[in-house]
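Example for tutorial group B:
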C-alpha cells in the first residue's frame, strides 16, 4: 500500500468521523430540546462519559487494535463525536445563559475539530528531521532523533520477525523496508505520523499495519500482563515503557518519545531466571530484571500475529 493510499484512508476516516460528529450534534440538540431543555443531567453525564472514555477504554491500544484498518488513529478517535453531542446539548440548554450556550457550543466544536485533525496535521506543522541513513547495531535500528524511538522499534520488530519467520512472511512492503535498512526509519516515521513531538501509540499501530498490510500478518494489542506473553506467543513485541515516576502507570501516553518519559522498546524474550531481553532503539541490546520491567511497563504493547 502506497503512502498516498494510506493518507487517503486517514482523511476518508476523518470524513466518516466528521459525519458522525454532525449527526451527534443534531441528535444532542434535538434530545436536549425535547426532554432536557431545563435539566442539566444530560450535559453533565455526557461530559463525564467523554472523560471516562478518554482515560478508560480510549486510553488503551486494545480499543484501537479491534479496528481492521491502518487508519486506526482516526477511526478509533470517538472523542470528537462525544464532544459534538455535548455541543448540541448545550445549544438547547435553557438552564444556560444565551451567551454562555453559544460560547460553550463553539468551544466544544472547536475542541472536537482539533482532536480530529490534530494528529494528521501535526507531522506537517512539526516535521521530524531524521538522519538520511538509519544506523543499525546487531539487528537493532537505533533512533536518530529523540522522538523517533517508535519507528525505530517497528523496524527492529520487522527485523526480528524476518529472523523468526523469514522474509517472505513480511509481504512486499515489509520486505522492501528491510531491503532499504538505511531509509526504513524515515519511511516508518511517515507511516506512523511521527512528528518532532513523538509518535502517538495509535500511529504506531497503524504504521506497523501498513508495513505488513500485504502479508499474512496483522498487528494486535498484547496482553496487559507481560507474564502471559510467552504462553500466548506474543513475543517479540513493541512495548511502551515509562522511565519517569515510581512505576509505569496505566493507560496510554499522548506521545512516545516526546521526552525521556515515554519510550518504545522491543521485548525479545524472557529468560528462565525472569530477566527480559530488550532491544532498545536508544542504546541497542540490554537486559532488564523482572522488577525493573514491570515497574516501567505501561500496559500497552503491540505484536504481530499470523491471520
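The residue assignment follows.
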Amino acid at each position: 500500500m502506497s503512502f498516498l493510499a494510506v493518507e487517503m484512508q486517514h482523511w476518508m476516516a476523518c470524513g466518516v468521523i466528521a459525519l458522525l460528529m454532525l449527526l451527534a450534534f443534531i441528535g444532542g440538540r434535538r434530545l436536549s430540546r425535547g426532554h432536557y431543555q431545563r435539566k442539566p443531567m444530560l450535559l453533565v453525564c455526557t461530559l463525564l462519559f467523554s472523560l471516562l472514555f478518554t482515560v478508560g477504554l480510549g486510553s488503551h491500544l486494545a480499543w484501537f487494535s479491534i479496528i481492521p484498518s491502518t487508519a486506526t488513529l482516526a477511526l478509533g478517535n470517538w472523542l470528537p463525536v462525544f464532544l459534538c453531542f455535548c455541543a448540541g446539548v448545550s445549544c438547547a440548554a435553557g438552564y444556560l445563559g444565551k451567551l454562555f450556550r453559544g460560547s460553550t457550543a463553539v468551544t466544544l466544536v472547536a475542541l472536537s475539530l482539533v482532536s480530529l485533525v490534530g494528529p494528521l496535521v501535526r507531522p506537517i506543522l512539526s516535521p521530524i528531521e531524521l538522519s538520511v541513513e538509519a544506523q543499525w547495531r546487531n539487528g537493532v535500528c537505533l533512533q536518530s532523533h529523540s522522538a523517533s524511538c517508535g519507528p525505530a522499534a517497528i523496524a527492529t520488530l520487522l527485523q526480528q520477525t524476518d529472523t523468526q519467520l523469514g522474509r517472505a512472511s513480511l509481504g512486499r512492503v515489509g520486505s522492501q523496508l528491510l531491503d532499504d535498512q538505511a531509509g526504513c526509519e524515515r519511511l516508518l516515521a511517515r507511516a506512523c505520523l511521527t512528528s518532532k513531538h513523538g509518535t502517538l501509540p495509535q500511529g504506531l499501530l497503524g504504521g506497523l499495519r501498513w508495513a505488513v498490510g500485504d502479508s499474512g500478518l496483522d498487528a494486535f494489542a498484547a496482553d496487559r500482563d507481560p507474564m502471559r506473553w510467552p504462553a500466548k506467543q506474543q513475543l517479540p513485541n513493541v512495548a511502551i515503557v515509562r522511565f519517569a515516576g515510581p512505576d509505569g502507570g496505566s493507560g496510554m501516553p499522548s506521545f512516545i518519545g516526546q521526552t525521556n518519559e515515554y519510550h518504545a522498546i522491543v521485548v525479545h524474550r524472557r529468560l528462565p531466571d525472569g530477566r527480559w531481553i530488550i532491544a532498545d532503539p536508544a542504546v541497542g541490546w540490554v537486559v532488564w530484571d523482572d522488577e525493573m520491567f514491570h515497574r516501567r511497563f505501561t500496559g500497552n504493547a503491540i505484536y504481530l500475529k499470523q491471520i
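The chain has twelve helices and eight strands. Compare this with the pattern of hydrophobic and polar residues in the output above.
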